[in-house]
Each structure stands twice: as C-alpha cells, then as structure tokens.
Amino acid sequence: xxxxxxxxxxxxxxxxxxTIGLIVNPVAGMGGRVGLKxxxxxxxxxxxxxxxxxxxxxxxxxxxxxxxxxSATPFRLLTGAGDQGEDVARAAGLDPVVVYRPLPGAxxxxxxxxAALVMAAADVDLLLFAGGDGTARDVxxxxxxxxxxxxxxxxxxxxxxxxxxxxxxxxxxxxxxIAGEFRVRFREAEVMDIDEAxxxxxxxxxxxxxxxxxxxxxxxxxxxxxxxxxxxxxxxxAVARQVVRQMKAGxxxxxxxxxxxxxxxxxxxxPSTLLGVxxxxxxxSVGADLNEQAxxxxxxxHATRIVVGVLGGHGSLxxxxxxxxxxxVIRRTGRENIIVITSMDKLVSLDAGCLSVDTGDGEVDAMLxxxxxxxxxxDRSVIFRVRS
Length: 388
Fold this sequence. Notes:
By secondary structure, the protein is α/β, with parallel strands linked by helices.
C-alpha cells in the first residue's frame, strides 16, 4: 500500500447524508469449488455451470448489506437492476434506487464498468462491489481513485487490497464510513490480478493494475498478496520433509494450493498442481487438481488430514484461492486434522497480526477461530491466532 491519504478527500465529508453505490457481479466465484480457479470469460463460465457450480456472490453480498442495514445512520443506496444489486439490496431490507439496467443475458465485465461510471457520476461516497480481482479491475478502470471502493469478497482469487476480510466486515466497514467515524482511514490500495489461463496451465502470472482509494480499518480489510523471500526456502523444505515422515499409513492427505505445499509433494517425489488441490495416500498420488465433490468422494471411509500454507499479505488459511477445500470438506476433516505450514517471516509480516478464514459458513469459521499450531521449521512451531 502507498501512504494513506487524509480523510478529507472529495466525497468523504461527514457533514451530509452518505450515498453508497452497490455493484454485484452475479457470476463471481462460481469457479472456486468446481476447481476452475475463476470465471473470467464466457467459456469458463459455461464449464463452471456444466460442473454444477452455483452462484455465491449474491448470498455474500446479502450478508454484507444486512450488516450495513443495521446502521443507525441514514444513507441512500444506488445499484443495478435485478441480480446486479437490486435483488440482494431488497433481500437485506433496503430500498435501493436503480440507476443502471444491464442488457439481457449473462453478466459481462462491461456491466460492472458501466455501472461504476454511472455511480461515480452520481458522486457516491463509497462504491461497494461483490466479486473478485477481475471485478476490482473493472471498477478501477472506470473510477480510478475518484471514488473510494470496497470489495465484498465473492471471487476465487482475491489478491487485491481493496477487499474486506469477509462479507460481514465489508458491511460493518461501510457502516463506519457512512457514520463518518474518525477511526476509518483511507489508503491507496493495490488492485492485482492473476492470469486465469496461465493459472490453469499451472503458471503464476501476477500483475499490479493500479491503486484504488479504499477505506481501511485493521482486522476488517486485507492486504495484497505478498511474495516470499529467499531465506524462507531451507526451513520450509525441512518442515515439508518432516510432514512427509510423519504421514500415517492409510490416511488421506489433501494438499492445498501454493508453493509451500508443493514442497511436501516434492519431498514425496510426486508432481503437484501449483494452484489446485492434490491428494496423496501411502506415499502415492490419488488425485490431482481436485474439486470439492472429488475431494469428498476420496474422503469416504478414510481418515483425512488437510495440509495448507498461509497466503502472504492476507494471512488467509481458507477462502482465498482454495475454495475447493470447502466448509463441508473442513467440517468432515475436523479442526484437529489441519496441518498449517508457513515461514516465521510471513507470520511476522502480517499487518493484522493474525490468520483469517472466510469459508462462507459461519459455523465452520467459528470452529476454525481461536489459536492453531503453525509449523515454521523442523521441530519448530508457534501457536497463532485465527480470526473469522
């Protein structure tokens, strides 16, 4: 993040009734549980639907708006027609003003960009959007840093720093903004995205698209994804080998995405899916790049362990880029059977000072909250706090 701006930026005056814009990308996040790593492009969306994907952004946007609706401060809500925002606003008990009507058919990036332009022209004080990094890019393209934006996390790969840590916190932070609370600061937050086509070829191609003005309150928003540093490698390789030595016969191990868990597969002498979920048992691969349903089929009749890393910058365990390991997969596995591996440097660098979870299931998030053991090296671990 760049240096924070003063809170007297245009549109942030606490002396008038606030206006909030709402944009919902109704297809965001549909590719997560079915293993598609996103829904950018009509072909990928069709494949997600074929695999049984269901919409998730409307449900998550409704959670955020219910928290916003509880605010005692009056405000106006501008939004798009139907599933572009109007439906979820009414479901949350709000009476929105429809200012944008998309063309019939599936949602397109142009709908997000055009709706954002309309809301910026209406001088909204905050633009809420439900989607992922692709939606954040579209909003940024239209409004730049003229309007503060805040993401309701609803996509697959939310690496940008404009997102709240979960939908409820998005609603709470928006409520703080309309109340003009002094503790809310505004910062220039990174908007990042990863090439989905490259991801499906097991390659990471990240790009910084720019900076958006965004409200910030510790614990309520995430930072952008951070990279690793070279001196982490030896310790992580060693702890990966230790995990392999301690694997139990007849036990199914589900390995989440990322370079940290790839080290475990390397220690086993097995190929891995960098940005997918793999499964091993008794030292052999039993599945690669698995979706939620495939994971649950493999789990039947087997004791299961989940091995995950920590998403640098975010501090995320579940809910960012690993939605295949769904709330139901976690529930069936059990909290005590989750193995977390990361470097001490990554833990120390977390702005919030804790790990986060956002599975979309309140009961599972509550189950994961508290303190968890995190392995940082051979025979080295720390007990670290997890917040939902």
